[in-house]
Design a protein that fits this description.
The structure is a homotetramer. The first copy, chain A, is about 70% helix and about 0% strand. The first copy, chain A, is mainly alpha-helical and about 220 residues long. In chain A, helix 1 packs across helix 7, helix 2 crosses helix 3 and helix 6 runs parallel beside helix 9. The N and C termini of chain A lie far apart (about 65 Å). Chain A binds a DNA duplex (21 and 21 nucleotides) through helix 1 and helix 3.
Chain lengths: ~220, ~220, ~220, ~220
DNA sequence: AATGAATGAGCCTTCATTCAT
DNA sequence: TATGAATGAAGGCTCATTCAT
């Protein structure tokens, strides 16, 4: 405020300390749960006095909020969705699945914490349901567009996406290997929702007017 | 033990009290988490003194074990799997999906508790992974048999099952409506893993030239 | 509740423990102030664990309420006022002054605590003002009756009472000797409010119609 | 100190800051009590960092001392007493009463703080008792002189003064209106200690045979 | 079987105080 | 002069657990 010329050295250090506390808190919350991890745990692991935590955060609750703010997965998920837009269905689903795995892997600690807290805190549950609704809306619009283009058969795209996410995210959170699981999953889902005659191998949307190859098989 | 003629009156009452404590503990664990619920909470809700809890259980931990023992979902899931065996793939997958939802709904409180504890207790995590492996083995054997019969195309059946379970169980745990979600999900998965030309409507594998059933929505 | 035949042994002991905690808390609150005295102080002086205090009281605040309930000076002051009613003014004022000193002496610890808290807690201030108003109303009615009987000259009796109380109570709270201070005070106030010609030495109200002795002196 | 020519600009600013801190501390001590107000509270209200408080004061205790030094009511009370000296009793008592109210009103915050601390800090209690003794000595000498002049009857003047102060000061500290309370109080006390036949209206001692002034109300 | 008094460890939080910048 | 990061000692309160009755 009163010092033009960018952050001072001291402010930079304070910011670092703050982030250090947030990151350490996230580690410990993920390991022991929010209730199981103590402020003392966090301070000790960072190597400072307990009191310092309260210099940066009003309460444990506030610390949790700061964690979410800093590590919140909404932005990366949004970016992922944006990057998929306009891609053919086969490629898009694959990008989606692998992307979700990657983002969830990077944020696995936070997701682990949230998964626990959502079950017990109504406000967090509501927040999570809201985010879920937003993401489903955006991603659903993408899949619907692929239906309109004739790549996918008409269906409730929410189901596809929910299934995709529900299958992939826990994998990442628990830390299991993605492959070959995800590739197989994408194949199953794609076959499940592909329009008759859509050939993923082409990586090219078949025009809506294009005559599908003889329905010899569902593949 | 030393009294022939079945349980005495007193033993029956003790059993009832024990179960009452277990059930109430489960309720509270699900509401507030294992850490968030106190022994006093439980005793108060049952209408007894805290001390009594320790007549029936050695510790909070022991109480949690008793809950799992009494409400463990392994048996019903096993029964479900058994009931599906020998059924055609289309029917089997549907039975499986709806059955999983039903069982998970009935046990949603326990599953909610377990979901939280698994993330934080290594022993529980191992236990859960073990159960998962068993269930996947049994159910996988079933799907493999349907592959062998030509109903389903050869694929990693674990993926199908994992996806099914991961999609359905959270639905039940969070308390969302199953339909039309589950029906749609089954349709997608079934199409995704069906052998070419398999006609679910027949409950019989069909020749390659048979027309596939129309999708639910206008294609 | 569920045990006819009066309090059990255990209940009696619990009650004793409770009172012991209240009394010890009062001692310490008076010595160090409510903020200055710690729950540990109290527990230690009683010879129990800190936690036990919270078995009997919800909070430090609740403990303070219990102190007021048990040691509240309203009842004894009311009794004092009742005992004075119908007495001649001279005797009444003297009884009042000495009685207030006695009661305030007996409750000096609580009054000391309240004196401090009133200055800082609006609710307590209001409560105290309310009590003061009640007491002044009752005692004022007494003095007004003595005015009507011609013993005292018409005046704002609230002032007399307020002055009496304000002079006597601090004496008791601080623990100073009452005599000869109180006797002198009563004499001054009595002369200050006596009707011309009222002779306290008589301990008899002069009838309203009685001719006052020649106004040779005010005494 | 080492700079001739009066205080430098910087010294003047420092003095201002110091006084600002003292005044703000007094405000907060009065509002929340010495224990209840924090150094951070004070610094925040002044708009500076906590650390700065420790550039001006060694400790919270030292800050309290500085408050007393700056706002101590001894000087104004002394001035009041000096101004009363030689005045006739009736005028003197009235001046005293109103003057005490005025001074106590001006210093009500400090008096509120002291009232609380005296009850809990032995050193402060001693200090206060010492001040009280001094004031009573001076004011007592004044009243004794009026006794010697025949305006007041011989009596323990300490009692009169104590009663006056005890009645008036709390009024000011709590912030109640002075009138008509103080006027009535003075009248009562004056009648209570006046020599027989003393006529306040004259501001002159009157002979025993002189008719007393009519009471304020119809007697 | 049942009660609830009692314990004691530990948690979150506050706050006066210090100190490097 | 001024800042605010950092410390560390408590303090209020909770809670699983024990035990005499």
């Amino acid at each position: 405020m009163g010092h033009p010329g960018g952050p001072t050295n001291r402010e930079r250090q304070a910011e670092q300390r703050r982030n250090q506390l947030i990151d350490t808190a996230l580690d410990l919350f993920a390991e022991k749960g929010v209730d199981g991890a103590t402020i003392k745990d966090i301070a000790t692991r960072v190597g400072v006095a307990q009191g310092l935590v309260y210099h940066y955060f009003d309460s444990k609750e506030d610390l949790l909020s700061a964690i979410i703010e800093r590590h919140g997965p909404v932005q990366p998920f949004s970016a992922l969705l944006a990057s998929v837009y306009e891609r053919p269905a086969a490629e898009g689903l694959s990008l989606l699945a692998h992307g979700v795995y990657r983002v969830a892997s990077e944020r696995r600690k936070l997701l682990s914490v949230l998964a626990r807290e959502i079950l017990v805190r109504p406000e967090m549950r509501l927040m999570a349901l809201g985010v879920r609704a937003q993401v489903l809306a955006i991603a659903g619009a993408y899949l619907d567009s692929r239906i309109a283009l004739g790549e996918l058969r008409p269906h409730d795209t929410t189901v596809t996406l929910q299934s995709l996410a529900a299958s992939v995210v826990p994998l990442a959170v628990v830390g299991l290997e993605p492959e070959p699981y995800i590739t197989h999953l994408v194949e199953i889902l794609l076959r499940g929702v592909a329009a008759p005659g859509y050939n993923p191998a082409n990586d090219q949307p078949t025009g809506p007017g294009a005559a599908p190859a003889k329905p010899t098989a569902t593949s």
